[in-house]
């Protein structure tokens, strides 16, 4: 089934027609070696997107959360090949803006596979959603009800509620979004008075969640909103949107169990209920590897300092905004051709700086690296989530100019 899914992905819009390399057993090392050897003059940073990893992640999702339909959160990484691969694998999409909706529609995805999951939408973006038939959105304020009534009255709504506990999340969203329990009934009444159709509830337990129990608390809170709607005589709610917060590592099993058991406890045999989710990090993080070139070096006693051509204002903005901890491995194809991965080599305490003239642009400190030279490479795994998506053009180093090479891992 991996091979069949992979074939589907290779024919997907955003992927079709592009060169996709099968990774050998040595995987990225070989692949990156082949790229950097070809790029002897051009030493720009580049991403490698492993489409096989995307296939495996979708398989993992479907096996662990069979009743939850994923709507990939485009904000996390809008790379068209990733969007196309996910669309081909049956994912739907969470878009937060006109441009995100456009990029998903451009892949031939129909508008009914999109949730416009931004509780506070600019009028022009909302009008655009109406014009292209994106008819499902979230809200958590009276002003949004008025706006939707005026510009997109056919839109079906999900009331976004604040998750009761997002304390375990790397990036809690509660301070900004989600109706408080006491705001729910007045908001439902406002929507009712505006003759808008509120079809369900959405929440987000925070990105990079570490407490799986947060899903249970939020699903319980959603159930009480379903009950409040029923008390108001509103049509039966049909959609539960459990948001994002999932990571693909060992914690995923625990999160999936928490979701499945809470759905069983609070929504047993709910007739016609559709459960959806908005995973971003889960599908993007481990699928991308970033290769950066060493463009400068300074030796201060035992300390080694390196400058690379991507940094805090580029892909590594995740250190600031996403509170990410990143790591890298050396690829010394210039200075140590016989042993480019530097296995067994002596290491030095090293600092890695980004390319801009700001001292804040420091990527790693106290990292142990072998002796490297200008033109060697540093390779950062798991760089797909909230990286290139939020980079800037500061100092003329443009994140959007970073290219993405496509590959797939061979499970055999
Ligand atoms: N949905 C919404 C509304 C979000 O704001 C976010 C992230 O901020 C996501 C989904 C994706 O979350 P994650 O990457 O944690 O899965």
- Give the rounded overall mean pLDDT: 95
Distance between the termini: 13 Å
CATH class of the largest domain: Alpha Beta
CATH homologous group name of the largest domain: Alanine racemase
CATH topology of the largest domain: TIM Barrel
Strands, total number: 19
Number of helices: 12
Number of domains: 2
Helix/strand-derived class?
A: alpha/beta
Domain Orn/DAP/Arg decarboxylase 2 N-terminal: 52-284
GO biological process, one term: putrescine biosynthetic process from arginine, via ornithine
GO molecular function, one term: ornithine decarboxylase activity
Catalytic activity: L-ornithine + H(+) = putrescine + CO2
Give the gist of this structure.
The chain is 31% helix and 24% strand. It has 412 residues and is an alpha/beta fold.
Strand and helix map with partners:
Blueprint: H1 2-10, E1 20-22, H2 28-38, E2 46-50, H3 51-64, E3 68-73, H4 80-88, E4 92-95, H5 98-105, E5 114-116, H6 123-132, E6 136-139, H7 142-151, E7 156-160, E8 169-171, H8 181-193, E9 197-202, E10 207-209, H9 213-231, E11 239-241, H10 251-266, E12 274-277, H11 281-284, E13 288-300, E14 303-308, H12 318-321, E15 329-331, E16 347-353, E17 362-370, E18 377-380, E19 403-408
Parallel strand pairs: 1-19, 2-19, 3-4, 3-12, 4-5, 6-7, 7-9, 9-11, 11-12, 14-16
Antiparallel strand pairs: 2-13, 8-10, 13-14, 13-18, 15-18, 16-17
Helix pairs in contact: 1-3, 1-4, 8-9, 9-10
Bound molecules: pyridoxal-5'-phosphate.
């Amino acid at each position: 089934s991996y091979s069949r899914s992979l074939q589907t992905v290779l024919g997907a819009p955003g992927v079709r027609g592009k060169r996709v390399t099968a990774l050998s057993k040595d995987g990225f090392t070989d692949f990156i070696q082949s790229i950097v050897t070809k790029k002897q003059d051009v030493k720009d940073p580049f991403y490698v997107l492993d489409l096989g990893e995307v296939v495996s992640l979708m398989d993992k999702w479907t096996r662990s959360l069979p009743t939850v339909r994923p709507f990939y959160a485009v904000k996390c990484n809008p790379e068209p090949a990733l969007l196309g691969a996910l669309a081909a694998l049956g994912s739907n999409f969470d878009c937060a803006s006109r441009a995100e909706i456009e990029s998903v529609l451009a892949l031939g995805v129909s508008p009914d596979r999109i949730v416009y999951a931004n509780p506070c939408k600019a009028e022009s973006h909302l009008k655009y959603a109406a014009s292209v038939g994106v008819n499902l959105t979230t809200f958590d304020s009276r002003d949004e009800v008025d706006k939707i009534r005026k510009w997109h009255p056919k839109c079906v709504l999900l009331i976004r509620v604040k998750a009761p506990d997002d304390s375990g999340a790397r990036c809690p969203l509660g301070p900004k979004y989600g109706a408080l329990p006491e705001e729910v009934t007045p908001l439902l009444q406002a929507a009712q008075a505006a003759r808008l159709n509120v079809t369900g509830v959405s929440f987000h337990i925070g990105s990079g969640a570490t407490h799986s129990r947060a899903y249970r608390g939020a699903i319980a809170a959603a159930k009480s909103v379903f009950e409040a709607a029923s008390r108001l005589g509103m049509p039966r709610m049909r959609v539960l949107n459990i948001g994002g917060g999932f990571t693909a590592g060992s914690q995923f099993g625990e999160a999936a169990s928490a979701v499945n058991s809470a759905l069983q406890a609070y929504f047993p045999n709910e007739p016609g209920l559709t459960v959806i989710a908005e995973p971003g990090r889960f599908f993007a993080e481990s699928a991308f590897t970033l290769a950066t070139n060493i463009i400068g070096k300074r030796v201060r006693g035992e300390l080694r300092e390196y400058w690379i051509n991507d940094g805090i204002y580029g892909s590594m903005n995740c250190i600031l905004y996403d509170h990410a901890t990143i790591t890298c491995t050396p690829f010394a194809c210039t200075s140590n051709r016989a042993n480019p991965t530097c296995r067994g080599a002596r290491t030095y305490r090293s600092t890695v700086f980004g390319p801009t003239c700001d001292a804040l642009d420091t990527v790693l400190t106290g990292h142990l690296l072998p002796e490297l030279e200008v033109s060697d490479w540093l390779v950062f795994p798991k760089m797909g989530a909230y990286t290139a998506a939020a980079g800037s053009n500061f100092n003329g180093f443009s994140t959007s100019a970073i290219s993405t090479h496509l590959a797939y891992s061979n499970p055999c």
